[in-house]
Amino acid sequence: MKYEEKLFDTQLLKSAQHIVTQLHNERTRYEQTWQQLSKYIFPYRGRFNEEQHTRDGERRDQYLLNPFPMNAVSRCAAGLHSGLTSPSRPWFELSLQDTEKAQYHPVRMWLDDVHDIMMAIYARSNTYAMLYHIEHEMAQFGTAALMLEDYNTGIWHKAFTCGTYCGGIDARGRISMFARRFSMTAAQLVAEFGYEHCSLAVQNSYNANDLTTRFDVEMLIMKNDKYDPDKLEMGNFPWQAVYYEKGTTEKFLRISGYNEQPFLMPRWHVTAGETYGTGPGHMSLGDCMQLQKLEENKLRSTDNVADPAMMFPASAKKVSTQPGAKNYVPDGTQMTAYPLVPPNAKPYEGIMMLVQEKVQSIGDSFYNNLMAMLTSQTHPQMTAREIAERHEEKLLLLGPVLEQFHGEVLNVLTKRCFGICLRNGLLPPMPEEITEDDLKVNFVSLLAQAQKMAAMPAVEQTLGLVGNLAAVYPEILDNINADEAIRLAADIKGTPEKMMRSEEEVEELRRQRAEAQQQQMQAQQMAAMAQPAKDMAEAARLMSETPTNGTGNALADLLGGAV
Prior knowledge:
It is built from 17 helices and twelve strands. By secondary structure, the protein is α+β, with helices and mostly antiparallel strands. The strands form four sheets. The chain has a five-stranded antiparallel beta sheet. A three-stranded antiparallel beta sheet has the order 3-2-9, with helices on one face. The longest helix is centred in the last third of the chain and has 42 residues. The mean pLDDT is 82.
């Protein structure tokens, strides 16, 4: 099949349409819950059956009489962003699958340089804004989605909200398919895919300069099991992507692909066998719904006190209760009016207690106390140690989230960015000892580092105990490998490799120091031997100058007249 003929592969087109339909049908089982999560937590996130953008600009929070759920999920997302992917501190590091190679100093230096380049690329792109979007969506809906686009000189992200995408999993439960239905105008379709690839309806709309009519498009990205690196063919990539107009039976708009997984679809917590995740939003949904009902009752009670229903005699047919109103009744009429709710009544005191209880429960579901504790710290290293020592139980609650975030966000994002940079010559030459497949990503964010810091007290306590015992039993120091201890501590604390000398440099410094000490000892020995000889020579000189009886001297007499 010729290169361009692939666009008219109707069998592949039907297969893609069938897969997308099945993925959307599976998603419908989750949509009712998602709509409630959107309605009662953060209504401006989540779009359901709105491909034509018919509700753009509408107010969506009319059901939230109490906006606390919006604040709670936003605090959770902000805390995750600060603790996991803060732009102000390193949150990942590059390593290798082979730990022995990873400890090789030139390799570590190269990995640190690559890390700095990637951090600079993240800072210049919209990475951090989109990571906050992911963290917010995960907290609210339990699932999020993001596309990682290659713009030749870096990376750019496109975020999607709940209800605008769907996914599929492989046999191991990993996301292996990603699909979307969306709409575009004729001008957008022509600009994106080319005039000749669009349908006749799109071309006619484009020729008429129609800027309002929108056309539905479907997209499917899936792992390509038929990928052949030695074959030149449209869509022959490890990940294949197809675009087509919804309902078409003729051709694709585009068939392309990616060298790395081009999308993120992380989940907060996943039940075995399910495609979509659950998160704090699911745990707090009942409380959020009750909170709005309590607020409604509280306002009704307030209205009953401020403007209570009144009791009037049956003879008073028309009575105005407006301020300043004048009501006239016949003379001699006995007029008694009273409110059904006494003026000093406080009917909503119990409701207020229930409201506070629900607010506290919602905040706990979104880890607001933990997030406030994390973001209130100012010194990263002190924070990590303090968290590990004082808040270990709270950190255990986020342990599964860290693992999930590492596998479905950090690892995919970093490898995608690394591949883009490598292909575009943005990285220094790779050492001969490693290949791209050897790359491994480690989490060193504040939360991940705090969990690692839990091992630091054991190291410090062991070294402290050895130091105390060494005063009595010096031979106990033989049990400690000091070099390994300091490197382990540096790894736990996330010390940059540039601060550490390589093992070869350490050995060379110690060799030079040993040679210098040996030369110093030899000089001291020679000096010690030279001083007696000098003293003897001086004594001999003095004796030779000392006269004795006759014509001799003391030295000649000592040597028996030999001098």
